[in-house]
Amino acid sequence: MPSAAIIGGGITGLVTAYDLHNAGWQVTVYEASSRWGGKIWTSPVGERLVDAGPDTFLARVPQGKQLCKDLGLDDELVSPVAPVPAYFHYNGGLAPLPSETILGVPTSMEALASSGAVSAAAVDRAAQDLTLPATDLYDADGVELSVGAYCRARLGDEVTDRLIDPIIGGINASDIDRLSLKSGAPQLWAAANRGPSLIRGLLELKESVGATLGSAGADEPVFLSLPGGMARIVDALVDELGDADLRLNSAITDLGQIQADQLVLAVPSLVAGPLVAPVSPGAAELLGQIEYASVAQVTFEIPRSAVEHELDASGILFPRVDGKVITASTWFSTKWAHYQSADHLLIRLTSGRFGDTRALDFDDASLTTHLIDELRSVVDIKGEPSSVRVHRWIDALPQYTPGHGGRVTGIVEALAADAPTIHAVGASYRGIGIPACIHDGRSLAQELIAQ
Ligand SMILES: Cc1cc2nc3c(=O)[nH]c(=O)nc-3n(C[C@H](O)[C@H](O)[C@H](O)COP(=O)(O)OP(=O)(O)OC[C@H]3O[C@@H](n4cnc5c(N)ncnc54)[C@H](O)[C@@H]3O)c2cc1C
Questions:
Q1: Is the shortest distance between the CB of 166 and ligand 1 below 6 Å?
Q2: What average pLDDT is seen over the chain?
Q3: Which residues pair with 448 in a beta bridge?
Q4: Does the Cβ of 396 fall within 6 Å of ligand 1?
Q5: Is the CB of residue 393 below 6 angstroms from any atom belonging to ligand 1?
Q6: What local confidence, expressed as pLDDT, does residue 285 receive?
Q7: Which of 267, 393, 430 to mutate to test the pocket of ligand 1 (most atoms within 8 A of CB)?
Q8: For ligand 1, what atom is nearest to the CA of residue 427?
Q9: Local confidence band at 219 (pLDDT 50, 70, 90 cut-offs)
Q10: Residue 33: CB within 6 Å of ligand 1?
Q11: pLDDT at residue 162 above 90?
């Protein structure tokens, strides 16, 4: 019977183990921490179980939904119920996400103007995208542009900073001026390649890009979630792996300690680098070049009576240019029907992104006060929270800086040459979202089974 050792018990490692186990392989999973799931973690806030990591995944990338189907969870998937997708902080107040926006890119200048999310001059500048000549997608060194560099050239700084950065930068906890257009925003890359106009390219691709955050009025759900938390996917995978060798509290520091036909590194690249260094210094060097961002979150319940006007949206995004520590507030009790309650609102505040570590300097109590005060600047909150959870995700979000795709190809080639039974999968490489991680793990499993 072929055997595999999987290092890392996040979604990528568990799904790889699940497929290999189902194909009759002997599987051992080593997880450093005392729980399964990695970045997927659901824990109590007051009496409710609330996600501290992802609370949703994209519906249009089929692998998330498919895995839920395989695990018998698909009937329970739900989509957001908030009437408005999101608001943006603007001029000390709130402006709704313009309708007909795709990944933060406004495709209707009328909708952009009427949203009040940017100045009149910014609307005029964004409209120039329709007539400007093509933008070269590579710099002088042949490296693809960043999302920021490209979008600034097409649509101007204000739309880029106020709409695109909070959405695309927010998803990745990135600085969009250091986020690869090709690897960090592949849909924009595809549209850009149709060029010259980004707006026209996106409209042409709309069928495949589909609705995304704020494509208000979309027929198909954009996001999916599970009542009870995303950790239910992890629990179901662990259940299915019942008779496999699953080891918690088992940090691997030396691959020499492991005997298996195939070795799957489903850990962040910053862990994988030192592990492969003895056998593939070339891969280790490239793995070490992938940088990370940290985020800190404050999730709280607050009596409904403490908030004068309950938000009618999934949340509020705070553009980096406004200088606040808070990057987003997610109104769980508006976004998801299963969190609605007569007594309490449930809100998660997020801070921290690549190049902005101010949140990490606060202790838990002062971070809570600071982020709630920043929220108070736009929402009338009178009382204090009744239950609070503070969680810090240190070096949690890999950054796909320009050249990322080339680095990943280099890692794959170096491992294939130096250590062909060692494989690196997960959020650090080919997509950070849950569906992308599932796809990465399952693709590797199928490849190994086919061998
Ligand atoms: C705050 C936050 C919010 C997010 N929101 C969303 C969202 O809404 N939607 C979405 O699709 N995605 C979201 N993501 C991204 C997504 O959750 C992650 O990219 C994905 O879960 C990563 O899975 P993974 O298995 O590749 O890595 P991880 O979850 O990082 O798993 C790696 C595992 O390896 C273990 N490990 C580390 N070192 C060792 C070692 N030496 N030996 C053994 N084990 C080790 C770790 O403990 C961990 O359990 C979010 C991420 C974060 C941090």
A1: no
A2: 95
A3: none
A4: yes
A5: yes
A6: 98
A7: 267
A8: 26
A9: low
A10: yes
A11: yes
| Residue 39 CA to ligand 1 centre (angstroms) | 3
Q: Which domains does the chain have, with CATH numbers?
A: 3-40+227-290+401-450 (3.50.50.60), 99-209 (1.10.3110.10)
According to DSSP, the residues that pair with 138 across neighbouring strands are: 144
Residue 384 CA to ligand 1 center (angstroms) comes to 32
57 lines ligand 1 (CB under 6 A): yes
* Residue 100 Cα to ligand 1 middle (Å): 32
Residue 268: CB within 6 Å of ligand 1?
Answer: yes
> Of the candidates 234, 357, 341, 232, which has an alpha carbon nearest to the alpha carbon of residue 293?
357
Question: What is the model's pTM?
Answer: 0.96
Ligand 1 pocket mutation pick from 30, 36, 39, 246 by most atoms within 8 angstroms of CB: 39
The identity of residue 195, as a single letter, is: G
Q: Is the pLDDT score of 446 beyond 60?
A: yes
Tell me the per-residue pLDDT of 113-132, one tens digit each, with 9 for 90 and over: 999 999 999 999 999 999 99
pLDDT band, residue 213 (cuts 50/70/90): very low
356 lines ligand 1 (CB under 6 A): no
